[in-house]
């Protein structure tokens, strides 16, 4: 018997059936190539263009091992996402999977967590986009936008116009349709991979092993400490699962896209780390905001290439904004359709096949956030939110294997529950390394979410309303005799 009350569980068949309801039916328009490109688009962003310098400053040349270790930490959760995405092809990602395994209150908590994670992430990435746009304009044309329209009030400006521009531009693209968004993302992914291939070609043409000694100056501790930072450069593959409902063949395509995008990015990350160290020392990169450009400038003597790397960074970050914002809208859409947030927001535009109203509201809110607020350390909330989701998704696989053993699973995590348990262990370990302030902010956000659930979500829950209506619908008519 299904749990009731706060821990009421959504039936998987019912979740899938609702995806075909008139008025809330999303357009099935993306295949494995577009889905994989979404994953690559979400993962390869500021991480590869920035974090490599910070990681090498901690681990030295052994940062190559840190990239591999971070990938291993992600792969266990990626396998669990692949199983649940292929088995429950419904928008909402970790929120929906939790609703089907651990109940409504836990689903609300993770959904509320993901709203913060994705929303803060989009705003923060948009601010980073503005900074990289200025770097590109300076490197290519020797000009830059004035502080008044490129920084928040707290940072000495009036508002961040580039951040507002990119958020609103992506909002319009997402309203137009998932097909158009996926095509634009695919083009941007190709551009940034070409830029990275250009970097690799130059780096290996000027390669030297001199910078690899000593290989691990900080030992194993340095490798693991750097991996904890580099881990967040891999975040994004989970956004692929938010596209479950719009995939033409989710059972086949989603596992390939989730695991494939993580694999592609891992190869590029490790090759880029090796190439960068082949032309520049960790000391030359560790303090730079653009370590790859610094490696080309100081190591290969190609200062003109900084403009190309800056352009690659702008394109890379644009695709990250697109995919993460897309994921935000689909999670919000699923919560609205379930009644935990206003259901009228889940209305799909009949012309574009997208939740246009919801997308506009989120776009405006995120644009205001990006324009006026310097995010600073609050971005660490993205990290704790993502790791929290990883924990619940891995638990979800274990729970569904026990409660629904006969449910069709096009993809199955091998050696379950061992691999999901390892995924949980990695996530908890990395969460334990986050600052106390981050935990406090996270706790405050969750408490605020529980208040909203108590005042609105609990009473308006579609599952609870349908359960209340069922007994009266089944009651026989009074006998007139």
From TrEMBL:
<keyword id="KW-1133">Transmembrane helix</keyword>
<dbReference type="GO" id="GO:0016020">
    <property type="term" value="C:membrane"/>
</dbReference>
<dbReference type="Pfam" id="PF13520">
    <property type="entry name" value="AA_permease_2"/>
</dbReference>
<protein>
    <submittedName>
        <fullName>Amino acid permease</fullName>
    </submittedName>
</protein>
<dbReference type="InterPro" id="IPR002293">
    <property type="entry name" value="AA/rel_permease1"/>
</dbReference>
<feature type="transmembrane region" description="Helical">
    <location>
        <begin position="413"/>
        <end position="432"/>
    </location>
</feature>
<feature type="transmembrane region" description="Helical">
    <location>
        <begin position="215"/>
        <end position="235"/>
    </location>
</feature>
<feature type="transmembrane region" description="Helical">
    <location>
        <begin position="301"/>
        <end position="327"/>
    </location>
</feature>
<feature type="transmembrane region" description="Helical">
    <location>
        <begin position="187"/>
        <end position="209"/>
    </location>
</feature>
<feature type="transmembrane region" description="Helical">
    <location>
        <begin position="438"/>
        <end position="456"/>
    </location>
</feature>
<dbReference type="GO" id="GO:0015171">
    <property type="term" value="F:amino acid transmembrane transporter activity"/>
</dbReference>
<feature type="transmembrane region" description="Helical">
    <location>
        <begin position="59"/>
        <end position="82"/>
    </location>
</feature>
<keyword id="KW-0812">Transmembrane</keyword>
<feature type="transmembrane region" description="Helical">
    <location>
        <begin position="256"/>
        <end position="281"/>
    </location>
</feature>
<feature type="transmembrane region" description="Helical">
    <location>
        <begin position="381"/>
        <end position="401"/>
    </location>
</feature>
<feature type="transmembrane region" description="Helical">
    <location>
        <begin position="354"/>
        <end position="375"/>
    </location>
</feature>
<feature type="transmembrane region" description="Helical">
    <location>
        <begin position="32"/>
        <end position="52"/>
    </location>
</feature>
<keyword id="KW-0472">Membrane</keyword>
<feature type="transmembrane region" description="Helical">
    <location>
        <begin position="157"/>
        <end position="175"/>
    </location>
</feature>
């Amino acid at each position: 018997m299904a749990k009731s009350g706060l821990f009421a569980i959504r039936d998987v068949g019912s979740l899938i059936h609702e995806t075909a309801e008139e008025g809330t039916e999303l357009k099935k328009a993306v295949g494995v190539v577009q889905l994989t490109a979404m994953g690559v688009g979400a993962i390869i962003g500021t991480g590869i263009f920035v974090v490599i310098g910070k990681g090498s400053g901690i681990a030295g040349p052994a940062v190559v091992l840190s990239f591999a270790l971070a990938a291993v930490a992600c792969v266990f959760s990626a396998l669990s996402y692949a199983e649940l995405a292929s088995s429950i092809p419904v928008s909402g990602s970790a929120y929906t999977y939790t609703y089907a395994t651990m109940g409504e209150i836990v689903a609300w908590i993770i959904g509320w967590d993901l709203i913060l994670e994705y929303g803060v992430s989009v705003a923060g990435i948009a601010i980073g986009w503005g900074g990289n746009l200025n770097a590109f304009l300076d490197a290519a044309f020797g000009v830059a936008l004035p502080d008044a329209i490129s920084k928040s009030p707290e940072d000495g400006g009036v508002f961040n116009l580039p951040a507002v521009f990119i958020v609103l531009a992506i909002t319009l693209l997402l309203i137009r349709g998932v097909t158009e968004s996926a095509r634009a993302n695919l083009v941007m992914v190709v551009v940034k991979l070409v830029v990275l291939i250009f970097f690799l070609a130059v780096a290996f043409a000027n390669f030297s092993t001199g910078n690899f000694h000593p290989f691990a100056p900080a030992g194993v501790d340095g490798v693991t400490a750097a991996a904890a930072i580099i881990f967040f450069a891999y975040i994004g593959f989970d956004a692929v699962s938010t596209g479950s409902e719009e995939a033409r063949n989710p059972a086949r395509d989603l596992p390939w896209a989730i695991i494939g995008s993580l694999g592609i990015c891992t190869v590029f990350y490790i090759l880029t780390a090796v190439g960068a160290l082949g032309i520049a020392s960790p000391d030359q990169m560790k303090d730079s905001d653009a370590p790859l450009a610094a490696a080309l400038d100081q190591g290969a003597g190609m200062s003109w290439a900084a403009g190309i790397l800056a352009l690659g960074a702008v394109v890379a970050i644009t695709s990250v904004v697109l995919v993460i914002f897309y994921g935000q809208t689909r999670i919000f859409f699923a919560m609205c359709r379930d009644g935990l947030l206003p259901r009228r927001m889940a209305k799909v535009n009949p012309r574009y096949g997208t939740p246009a109203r919801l997308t506009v509201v989120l776009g405006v809110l995120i644009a205001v956030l990006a324009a006026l607020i310097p995010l600073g350390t609050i971005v660490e909330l993205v990290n704790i939110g993502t790791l929290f989701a990883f924990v619940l998704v891995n638990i979800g696989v274990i729970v569904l294997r026990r409660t629904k053993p006969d449910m069709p699973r096009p993809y199955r995590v091998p050696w379950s529950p061992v691999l999901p348990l390892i995924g949980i262990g990695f996530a908890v370990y990395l969460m334990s390394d986050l600052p106390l302030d981050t935990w406090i902010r996270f706790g405050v956000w969750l408490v605020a979410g529980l208040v909203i659930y108590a005042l609105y979500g609990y009473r308006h829950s579609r599952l609870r309303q349908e359960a209340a209506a069922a007994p009266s619908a089944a009651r026989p008519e009074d006998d007139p005799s």
